[in-house]
Amino acid sequence: MDELTLDEALEELSSAEDFLEYFGIEYEPSVVQVNRLHILQRYHNYLDRAVMPELESARRAVYASLLQQAYQDFVKSDALTEKVFKVFHMHEPQVKFVPLSAITVNKSGA
Fold first, then answer.
1. Which class for 67: exposed (0-12), middle (13-18), buried (19 or more C-beta within 10 A)?
2. H-only helix segments in 5-105
């Protein structure tokens, strides 16, 4: 993949391990095995918020740095604590408002 542009190379990558190896980031396989989807989602979230430089070598450095950060989040923590996916927020208190005007009484046959 060395002769590909950054964008072309990224299109070829599919697993967390592929990304980590491409950017030369050392990783513990057991951490990635348990958290691969969380790492990739966190990486995606970081990329969405990042300001990307024009120069490809600078973009490559930003991509690598953000992937390292995403991986380290799960070395230091776990999926339940990090709550990357919406499903982890579903058990938090939910507040719903029902206006009094929406409440009706059914008087038919009761």
1. buried
2. 6-12, 16-22, 29-49, 56-76, 79-82
Q: Give the C-alpha separation, 16 to 13, whole Å.
A: 8
Residue 26 and residue 59: Cα distance in Å, rounded?
20
Angle at 61 between CA 69 and CA 31, to 5 degrees: 30
pLDDT digits (tens, 9 = 90+) for 54-96: 999 999 999 999 999 999 998 887 665 566 656 554 555 667 7
pTM for this one?
0.70
- For tokens 């206006």, name the residue: 99
Give the closest residue to 68 by CA, choosing from 14, 2, 21: 21
What's CA 22's distance to the chain center, in Å?
18
